[in-house]
Amino acid sequence: METGFQGGGMNGTAIENFVCVIFNVSFMNCTWDVGRTASGDTQYFLYWKTSGLFYPATSGKEDFTECQNYTKDNCGRHTGCRFQNVTIENTKAHFQVNVSRSGQTIQSYKKMIILYEIEKLTPPLNVTVNCTEASHGCEIRWQPPRTSHVKRYDCFKYQIVIENKADPENINTTSKTERNVSGNSYIFGSFSAGKRYSVKIRATDNNCLVSRSWGEWSTPVEFGKEQLRSTSSYTLFLTPVVVASLVLILCAVRIYLKKTSATVPQPRDPFHDISPIDFQTDYKNQLIKHETEEIIIEEVA
């Protein structure tokens, strides 16, 4: 439902182009154009309320809430409103813009919007590409866009654009492949490792309560020639670093094992550590020493 008042009877003060968009799951912006001939003292105030999608709204004015975060033009007139924490599921919103001059409301603009229809879907998540040169194919996989009210994967369909990047020596080699698919994967069967590609994906409704407008594009993911080159150089750089790290670890482990396995000296037990052979040797040495002392005494005498 939409009603508006425009024309000379109101001196061109009525708003135009009232539009609301929900983005990043729960943020909403509403904007409008002020009257073409509205004076500087004309002001616009936005009020809104929500109701169940399948239930009529109540008519009480107390249900409406005024915007808390206006945007303004150079003259200070309100030209929009920013909302946060907007709930989309099974909800419709009722908007009313009051046009005021010198503190008096001179006209109103009303509009009802089903919120899921104005959502700008976020990009599909976690886009990955897995290519095998032997099969000349790549499997492209992704996750559905983030939403606050849709949990089923089959509520979305996707548009995939795969671009064959131009050879710097031949700018005419650029080509593009576009496909509309359901599900969360796609097989790209024309892959050549000697070429460079990029892929991007966006989502829309697949017969659910989802916006029928195409959502945001995912960030392009490059694969093929450029990716293989970067991977090879990265591997070559990592190889000596990994080898050096392994050598250092092995040396540290070897030193540790030597320290922990070294024999710890024990205190000697005079009654157990000396064998009978040691007693005989000590006896002979003492006897020889005694005889030598006697010979020296006799010679002195």
Fold topology:
Blueprint: E1 2-3, E2 16-23, E3 27-33, E4 42-52, E5 65-66, E6 70-72, E7 78-83, E8 91-101, E9 104-114, E10 125-132, E11 137-143, E12 156-164, E13 175-182, E14 185-188, E15 196-205, E16 221-224, H1 225-261, H2 276-300
Antiparallel strand pairs: 1-9, 2-3, 3-7, 4-5, 4-8, 6-7, 8-9, 10-11, 11-14, 12-13, 12-15, 15-16
Detail the poorly predicted runs.
Answer: 1-10, 226-239, 269-277
Structural class assignment: alpha+beta
Rounded radius of gyration (Å): 43 Å
Strand order of the largest sheet: 1-9-8-4-5
- Helical element count? 2
Overall helicity: 10-25%
SSE order, as H and E? EEEEEEEEEEEEEEEEHH
Work out the strand percent: 35-45%
The biggest sheet, with number of strands, parallel, antiparallel or mixed sense and barrel status, is: 5 strands, antiparallel
Overall pLDDT? 76
Termini distance?
Answer: 146 Å
Shape: elongated
Number of strands: 16
Oligomer: single chain
